[in-house]
Amino acid sequence: MIDPVIQYLISASASLLFLIAGMHKLANLAEFQGIIDNYRLLPTSLTKVAVLLLGMTEITLCVGWLVTQSALIPLLSAALIGIYTLSISINLFRGRDYIDCGCSFSKFDKLLNQRTNPHLSFGLVIRNFALIGLMLLSILPANSRILGTLDYLSMFFSLLCIVLVYAAANQLLRNNNAINSWRNVSE
Amino acid sequence: MNEALIISNVILWVVVVALTTLLFAVTRQVGILHERVAPAGALQPTSGPKIGEITEEIKATSLQGESIRLGGSRQEKLASFILFISPTCPVCKELVPTAKSLAKAELNDMKLFFASDGENIEQHENYIRDLDIENYPYFVSESLGMYYQVSKLPFAVLIDGDGILRSKGLVNTREHLESLIESMTTGIATVQEYVESKSEPLESKTKLSAAENMS
Hints:
The complex is a heterodimer of chains A (187) and B (215). Chain A has helices at 4-27, 29-39, 44-67, 72-94, 106-112, 122-137, 149-180. Chain A is built from seven helices and no strands. In chain A, helix 1 (4-27) runs antiparallel to helix 3 (44-67) and helix 2 (29-39) crosses helix 3. The radius of gyration of chain A is 18 Å and the shape is globular. With 187 residues, chain A is mostly helical. Chain A starts with a helix and ends in a 7-residue tail after the last helix. Chain B has 215 residues and is of the alpha/beta class. Chain B has six helices and seven strands; from the N terminus they run H-E-E-E-H-E-H-E-H-E-E-H-H. The radius of gyration of chain B is 25 Å and the shape is elongated. The chains are: A mainly alpha (187), B alpha/beta (215).
C-alpha cells in the first residue's frame, strides 16, 4: 500500500518526463535520427520511423500517466526505458561511450547555454534503473484518503524539487564526462 | 498542534526547494567551469631539436649510479619522458608528484627520468630525498640541458622508442604534461595544429554545401 500523494507524484513526474522527451524528439526529428544512427542498432532506413514511433509512444505515455491508473502505463514506461537502457548498455559494452546519449533536452540546453552533449555512461544505466523502479512503485495499490490543501502543496513543491534534482543529476553526469576526458590517474 | 505542523511543513518545503535550487546551480557552475577551461598545451620553444627529428644519443650517469643512454636511434619498447627540474625552482616541486602519478598511469608506455644542472651534488641528493623520487633516474648533466635548449624550468621532453623527439615544452600544470603525452599518442604536435586540423574539414564541408546550393 502506498499513499495516494506518492502515487500522484510519480504519475505527474513521469508524465512531465515523457512530455518533454516526446516533444523534444518530435520537434528535432533529424537530430534524433542521427543520434539513433550513432547507436548502431537499427538499419539507417528504419531510424526515421523509429524516432517517430518513440516520440508518439512517449506522448501517449505522457497522457496515459495523467488519465488512467491502469498498471499498463507503468509497465509500458518501464519497458520503454528498459529498451533505452539496453541500447546504452550494448554501446557501453562495445566501447562506444563517446556518442551522444540523446537524453539532453536541447531547448533547455540553449536556455542554460550548454555546449556539450552528455555521453553514454554507466551512471545513465543506474539513473534509468532508478526511474524504472520508481515508475513500477506506482503499480502498488493506493489507500483511499481524502486529500487536503497541504497534500496538494506537498505535491507541488515535491514536483519542483524532483525536476531540479533530475536536472542536477544530469548535470553531474555531464561533469563526469568532462572529468573522465582527462587521463585517469589516482593521485 | 496541527497548525504548528502545517507551518513547519511549509517552512521545510521552502528550505528544501531553496537547497535543491542551490544544488542545481552548483552542479551547473561546475559544468560551466569544465566548458570554459579551454585546452592549453605546453609552450614549445623554437630552438633546439625539432619535433619528429631523431635525437642525438646522450650518455649520462644518474645520481643513483645507473649509466643510461638517452635518445639516439635505438629500438626500445618504452618512450622516455625527461622532466628538467631544479632545487631552486618552486613550480618544479609541485609538478613532480603529478609527473610521478602520470608515469605510473602510463607505466607500459613510457619511463620517467629527471634531469637537472648544477655543481652542488649534495643539494641534489637532498632534493631527491625530499621529493621521494629515488626510484627514478636523476641526472645532473649540463649536456642534456644544452642539447634540448632548456631555458626555463620545469621543462619536459618526450622521446619515443625509436629515438624520435615526439614533443617538448615548458610545463607548469598537469594539463601541460598530459598535452605532451597526448601529442605523442595522436601524432599532433601542438594544440594549434589540432584546432587547425579540426576546422579544415568543417570549412570544406560548408564550401561543399554552398556549392550544392548554387547548383
